[in-house]
Amino acid sequence: MKHGQISSKELADFIRERVTIEETYSRSMTKLAKTASNFSQLGTFAPLWDVFRLSTEKLASCHMDLVRKLQELIREVQKYMDEQAKAHKKTKEEVSSTLEAVQNIQSMSQVLQKSKESYNNKSLELERMRKDGATQRDLDKAVKVKKATETYKSYVEKYSSSKTEFEQKMSETAQKFQDIEESHVLHMKEIIQSYAYSIEETHKQIGEVHKEFVNDMENTSVESLIQKLAESKGTGKERPGNNTDRQTHTHTHTHMRAHTHTHTYKSDIFWSHYRNNSFYSSSDSEEEDDRRKFHVEIKPVQPNNGTHQHKATIDELKASIGNITLSPSTMVRWIMFSSGLSSPFLLTGTSRGPSPVTLASQDSLPIAVAFTETVNAYFKGADPSKCIVKITGDMTLSFPSGIIKIFTSSPSPAVLSFRLRNTSKLEQILPNQQLLHSDSSQSDTNTRDFWLNMSALTMFLRKSSEQNPTSSYYNVDILKYQVCSNGIHSTPLNLAVYWKCEPSTTDVRVDYRYNPEAMQPPGPLSSVQVLVPVSGGVTSMQSLPSAIWNAEQSKSLWKLNNITEKLENEGSGSLRAKFELSDGPSIPATLAVQFFTEGSTLSGVDMDLVGSGYRLSLNKKRFATGKILDLHSQYTK
Asked: Are 434 and 479 in contact (CB under 8 A)?
């Protein structure tokens, strides 16, 4: 019974600790939602912050609901503990007679043992005297065997009676103890079931919030965001006026020309977006403002030809995956791997940097680095020779908040220098020109040295601290790069999609193969999901492995566990589905797939600190899917 009371208390303590964790998490999510409302409300992306804010607030509410449920459960546990204590006290009173029976048999056992020893001693003495030839009178006078025999016999009878009473009392008491323990375990299981049900309900609510978030993002098109921006700015409503008006407009900072050519990107335009929306915008000079001017060439929208869905043109495909060029004769329908579906990468890790108190006393200042890469690929059916791949990456440095005081208090802080390794695998490197300098004359093609403009870095960190004074660290975008690709050998997951469309049925097959050689080092592809839209009025679906059919969106979803070469078939497999249609045939459509890998990159690029004054406290690596195109092929089962 004692252990039962202990287990009840420990369970209450466990649930109470879970309440503390959930409450802290809910408050943190509420705080995060508030920060989302404070982010920039300018530009086309601004409306999406409302989606983030509402979703985060709902998540915070879900966890706070769990807090209230668990607090109620703690009260039930406490009530049970009080009832348990009363039941134990009553039971102890009821079994007090059993304690007397135990004490009685223990005492009787001792007396019986002494009586037995006395009887044995007198019997031996009597036998010895007989052998020595003593008379009967002497024997009766010297040894009182008869009395010892009678005493021993009486104690045997008393012991037998005590034993019967002891066994009866112990049996009754043991049954009561067993009933108490059974009741205790059953009650504890009921509490645990309530605990599990509360968590399960919360997980369902969180799943609904996430589903709503994904739907909101999917339903927010690029066109609607641009339309909202145009409406908010009042642009695009009227055609430009006479020559006088046009002469006036020539002095504006941005010109837009309607043209039939697709747009291209250059390094200065690449970084102008970040200079216009990031930390260096406040320190730009007029000369830099002039360099930030850029032309946007827009291809007019072609009329709809009346088909079930728009055909992707060559230019649209090129715009989707950057500067990848396709054969003029190639017309495709495509699979898109959206990085927007993947979890955002935060440079937090396990190290948030030392406090300002301890930083000043250390010989070297800690910094952290993160490499985040995105893979974009184009597959043409099952032909590996026609796979085109584009891989881009970002390098971010993170500084603890305490480092700002050291930088500002020192007239000339130590210059932060680093060496980028495996640069021979990089096709292009675009450093942050406001913060980073490099020696382009280096002879070693596999490394490249960089050093930071410490005054500009200090200014940026100080401005970040003023904007978010409670943050324990600040991230700085250092450089971007593009990785040299080797076709299909550079993709971590090779794909081929086949459609067979008939009036009453549609068959879809997605073949995939894990490619460890594309990663440095090889790692598992996590959270792999394949989303296949199927038109034609699907009435039923048969799939292998099992997929989830969403009738409202007309999409089937496969969720796969981590894909690695350690799995059966070394990470290769197929997804198959057969759809019964009421309004066929289906039209092969865009497939959405997502996955990510932690602790690995596709380029193998890395960095080392050069010189003294700093140390690397954390090095995080990650890659995820960007956009991947795939031309479908017909097949016969």
From this structure: no
Beta carbons of 449 and 610 less than 8 angstroms apart: yes
* Cα distances (Å, whole numbers) of residue 346 to 341, 398, 399, 402, 477: 15, 10, 13, 20, 12
> Looking at the predicted structure, is the pLDDT value of residue 288 above 50?
no
Q: Is the peptide bond before 521 cis (omega within 30 degrees of 0)?
A: yes
d(CA 596, CA 568): 20
pLDDT: which is higher, 356 or 536:
536
Residue 8 has pLDDT above 50, yes or no: yes
Q: Is 128 helix (H, G, I), strand (E, B) or coil?
A: helix
Whether residue 545 is preceded by a cis peptide bond, meaning omega within 30 degrees of 0, is yes
For the stretch 189-196, contacts whose Cβ atoms lie closer than 8 Å and that sit 24 or more positions apart, written own/partner, are 191/11, 191/73, 191/76, 191/77, 191/80, 192/11, 194/73, 194/76, 195/15, 195/70, 195/73
- Exposure of 623 by Cβ count < 10 A (0-12 exposed, 13-18 middle, 19+ buried)? buried
Give CA–CA dist 537/554, Å, rounded. 8
HEC string of 223-285 equals HHHHHHHHHHHCCCCCCCCCHHHHHHHCCCCCEEEECCCCCCCCHHHHHHHHHHHCHHHHHCC
pLDDT single digits (tens) 563-615: 988 887 888 999 999 999 999 899 988 777 789 999 999 999 999 999 888 99
Task: Return the bridge partners of 494, or none.
Answer: 513
Residues 372/363, Cβ–Cβ less than 8 Å: no
pLDDT of residue 124 exceeding 90: no
Residues 6+ positions from 295 with CB-CB distance below 8 Å: 255, 256, 257
Mean pLDDT over 221-246 rounds to 66
Determine the pLDDT at residue 92. 80
Q: What are the tens digits of pLDDT across the range 175-231?
A: 878 888 888 888 888 889 889 989 998 999 999 899 888 888 888 888 888 887 777
Determine contact, residues 530/510, Cβ cutoff 8 Å. Answer: yes
Predicted local distance difference test score (pLDDT) of residue 238: 59
Cα separation of the two ends of the chain: 67
Residues 6+ apart with CB under 8 A from 263: 296, 297, 298, 319
Sign of the four-CA dihedral 469, 474, 477, 478: positive
Cα 320 vs. chain centroid, distance in angstroms?
Answer: 28
Do residues 493 and 514 make contact, with C-beta atoms less than 8 angstroms apart? yes
Residue 558, classed as helix, strand or coil, is strand
> To 10 degrees, the CA torsion angle through 438, 439, 440, 444?
-120
Other CB atoms closer than 10 Å to residue 194's CB: what's the count? Answer: 17
Alpha helices in 132-144 (DSSP H): 136-142
Mean pLDDT computed over 165-173:
82
Give the distance from CA 269 to its chain's centroid. Answer: 34
What single-letter amino acid sits at 564? Answer: T
| Beta partners for residue 608, in sequence order | 419
Give whole-number Cα distances, 176 to 96, 98, 159, 188, in Å: 13, 12, 25, 18
How far, in Å, CA of 229 to CA of 251, rounded? 22
Task: Report the chain's mean pLDDT, rounded to a whole number.
Answer: 77
pTM of the model: 0.47
Amino acid at 426: L
- Residue 277 has phi, psi (to 5 degrees) of -125, 5
